[in-house]
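Structure (tokenized):
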């Protein structure tokens, strides 16, 4: 009895259990709390990516059943890279990336500067208004613009018809309603939709970067007699290069994966009649779910991934050195 009292078992005592629980919390609890992210990433992120890479070397349609695929090596990639429809969709994607991406930044940068310098009192309200299109559903936006671009009684055609009566603009604008849903015009309609939706997002990015610029620089420039335009050119633009690198990278990634807007505007399968609006993502979708060629669709996805990597690298050559603080 005396021996048991002098040497109690720490595991059975309340203090021993509390110490073990405390050690368990310090050692394992952080991993338990972050495990849901890694579990979901492994199931819905890493596994689908690796499976798509594997299936890009196989010939398989879902109707064949799971596991009934045939190894074809680089056959899917060779077919994709020699497919005229794929290159047509890539050209449409790059065209939309240029003519919808560049205007976003040409509008967003000076707009953010004006909001910061002139509309500082209403900054919160103005940024909320410009940011609203970005958080609106892409499908809802495409449906609205589908109505606006209607050939008959569409608001855009009504505005063009009204401007046609003006003395100078009447010579430049057509005198008939424009059919925006043909191959020759659909890309311009899509570019307008993308610019309208994402300009506010880029404005918010550039506004946050401008707010981080020290006010002393603008005050010193004002004392030296620099105008607002000179301040924008010699202070704002050079110091915005890191944010330009980030924003342009996001634009490249987003435009190369453009899908919802053209898919809704073209009513899904209507892209066969309007190939000018078919993007690479749409062509990949049709290859997978209309023609049920999953191997070729997976190869398109990875070729598109390579194109995004190349364009991002070129963007890094333009803006990356300054963004990293180089001379």
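Design, position by position:
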């Amino acid at each position: 009895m005396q021996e048991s009292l002098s040497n109690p078992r720490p595991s059975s005592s309340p203090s021993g259990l509390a110490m073990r629980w405390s050690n368990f919390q310090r050692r394992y609890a952080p991993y338990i709390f972050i495990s849901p992210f890694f579990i979901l990433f492994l199931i819905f992120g890493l596994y689908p990516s690796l499976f798509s890479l594997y299936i890009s070397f196989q010939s398989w349609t879902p109707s064949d059943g799971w596991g009934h695929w045939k190894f074809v090596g680089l056959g899917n990639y060779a077919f994709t890279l020699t497919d005229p429809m794929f290159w047509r969709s890539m050209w449409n994607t790059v065209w939309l990336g240029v003519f919808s991406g560049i205007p976003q930044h040409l509008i967003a940068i000076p707009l953010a500067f004006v909001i910061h310098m002139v509309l500082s009192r209403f900054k919160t309200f103005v940024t909320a208004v410009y940011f609203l299109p970005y958080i609106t559903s892409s499908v809802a936006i495409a449906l609205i613009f589908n109505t606006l671009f209607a050939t008959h009684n569409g608001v855009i055609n009504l505005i063009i018809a009204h401007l046609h009566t003006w003395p100078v603009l009447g010579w430049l604008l057509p005198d008939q309603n424009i059919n925006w849903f043909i191959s020759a015009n659909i890309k311009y309609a899509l570019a307008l939709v993308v610019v309208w939706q994402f300009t506010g997002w880029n404005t918010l990015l550039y506004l946050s970067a401008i707010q981080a610029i020290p006010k002393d620089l603008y005050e010193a420039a004002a004392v030296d007699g620099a105008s607002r335009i000179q301040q924008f050119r010699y202070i704002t633009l050079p110091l915005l290069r890191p944010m330009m690198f980030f924003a342009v990278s996001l634009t490249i990634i987003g435009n190369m994966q453009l899908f919802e807007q053209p898919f809704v505007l073209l009513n899904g399968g209507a892209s066969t009649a309007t190939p000018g609006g078919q993007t690479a993502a749409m062509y990949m979708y049709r290859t997978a779910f209309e023609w049920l060629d999953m191997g070729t669709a997976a190869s398109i996805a990875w070729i598109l991934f390579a194109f995004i990597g190349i364009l991002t690298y070129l963007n890094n050559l333009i803006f990356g050195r300054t963004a990293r603080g180089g001379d």
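Reviewer-requested clarification: Residues 1-6 have pLDDT under 50 and may be disordered. Residues 2-55 form one domain.
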